[in-house]
TrEMBL record:
It comes from Arachis hypogaea. InterPro entries: Nucleoside_phosphorylase_d, Nucleoside_phosphorylase_sf. One of its GO terms (biological process) is nucleoside metabolic process. Residues 55-331 form the Nucleoside phosphorylase domain. This is Bark storage protein A. GO terms for molecular function: catalytic activity. It comes from the Eukaryota. Residues 1-23 form the signal peptide.
Amino acid sequence: MATSRSLNMRVAVLLIMVLSVCGSEFSRKKRKTLEEIKKINGNGPYVGLITVYAPEETAFFATGAFQSDPKHPFVDLAGRRFRVGKIHNKKVIYVRCGVGLVNAAAATQNMVDMFEISGIVHFGIAGNANSSMSIGDVTIPTQFANTGLWDWLNPNGIVDPSDFGKLDIGNFNVPRGEGQNLLGHVGYSTEQFYSESGDPNTPQRVIWVNTTRQWLNLAANLEGIRLERCVNSSFCLSEQPKLVIGLRGATANTFIDNAAYRDFLFQTFHVSSLDMESSAIVMTSLSNSFPVLVIRGLSDLAGEQKGDNHIQIFGPLAASNTARVVIEFLKTLPNPHYALL
């Protein structure tokens, strides 16, 4: 994990670079931002909180648990607003990253590079690929795979033996398996994982990236937490939502609303949640030697439903249940948080 000294050195170097560019409005704004960050870091460390898009943010702030810092309430950095405050007396910095792997990785790297962070909690909603789970449930996975790194081959192509999965598109012809499908095959390639603990420019090839065991163990104390069942006073789910810890999740730059592909992902990779950011945030956190936990509420059936996707109906409920679990997890974190690293 980055030390306070090394972090302050990085901020100082950036400040010197900015000061060397004289006279421009941009440099003055940048200098003010870096000076503000230095003051904020003097009060750290903080738990970094990262969510994705507006409905999740709305649900999070609706809990009323976030108390904004009276002196330094926020910093605008690289197009994002990083909000500084406390939740249950735990110091936190919150940011909304935006949809997709690139946004997720960029926001996480900004967070760990610029702020005195002890770890990252990522949260949001997700599609449900597991028929034993229900909309409204919240999952805290142990592992994530990026299922969007494809080797897309011609029909006569051979999938690389090092790929960890294979999708034969022709198997989905109707009638099943008949005729020829020119879309061919998709091989699922492994990630290249760079880390501070590894040799420079020598990535490990990984399929699964793991969230932090110590934080998972703490989260296990939350099993049985009471979650909301009703969207409003007249519309409720048929089953009581639950928190499930220890499953797997898949991430890709694809919104899944297709029953056949949903089932393929579950049968092939045994994943329960489908989203577009988590693996990037886990990879970036671990690459920089920070602990990380992911909390995702299930908002839809990823195509298994009849008719339109349910995310517009149940997304706010899933986001609300997720925010509740995040707040309760922060309550369980010892203070200072870095004692767990």
